[in-house]
Amino acid sequence: MKGLLKMKLNENFLIHDTGNGEILIAVGEETKRFHGIVKLNETGAEICHLIENDDLSLKEICNHFYEKCPDDDKEMINKGVSDFIEQLKKINAIKL
Q: Counting CB atoms within 10 angstroms of each CB, which of 22, 29, 34, 79 has the fewest?
């Protein structure tokens, strides 16, 4: 699995708890490029919180979920985390 490159949540994206779940929203200059919100499921919110303040690699994020969910299929974890990270990259929510 690729994934040694460190990444961090772009400081122009904020995680907000609506009371009914968490969302990711663009602020500042980023609102010129991204005009929406991302409704986060529990795993997506956890990934965003993991990279909110710490530079982590894809491998480190996956390892977090391997430890948290040792009975889950590692390939399924890899795919889910990778797919979500790719979506965050597309909207510029991740700094590499």
A: 29
Kindly report the CA angle at 49 between 67 and 36, in degrees rounded to 5?
130
Domains of the chain: 6-95 (3.90.930)
**What interhelical angle do 74-90 and 42-53 show, nearest 10?**
70
DSSP element (H, E) containing 56:
strand 56-57
